[in-house]
Here is the input.
Amino acid sequence: MNSKYTKVLVPKKKRIALVAHDDTKPELFAWVHNHLDLLKNHELCGTGTTSTIIREKFNLDIKSFFSGPLGGDQQIGSAITNGEIDILIFFWDPMSAQPHDPDVKALLRIAVLYDVPTAMSPIGADYIFGSYLMNEEYYKYIPDTQLSLSQRVDELSD
Here is the structure.
């Protein structure tokens, strides 16, 4: 990797964000039900409605952000940039326009930029959870934000 990136250790105990649009919540809840034993071993967070239902329905400890349309997607994106989320499970509805589509696109962009494994369907989530990396430490490379900032300052100061 070149010097534009920083090597970051992803811990054995993953920090997982769980997000779902209204029409895909039943799919996510069924997936959570089938993976309860695995999810209990990790730190969970999610957008408002989704996380609240998961907490109540499955008795899981899960941190709540705002609802997606009220800024929750942006909060999760911020948590990703701060190194607080390792995996994003986001069952989004490809058949319906969402009032917060720009936020959804921004969240997915940040997840890719910060090398966060992202699943958008049950089988995608199964692939992530079936990976040997799921219960191991590993390194990933993220943008070196300090380098980027100093380069931009240098370029714009001239």
In short: The beta strands are 5-10, 15-20, 43-46, 62-64, 87-91, 118-119, 138-143. DSSP finds seven helices and seven strands in the chain.
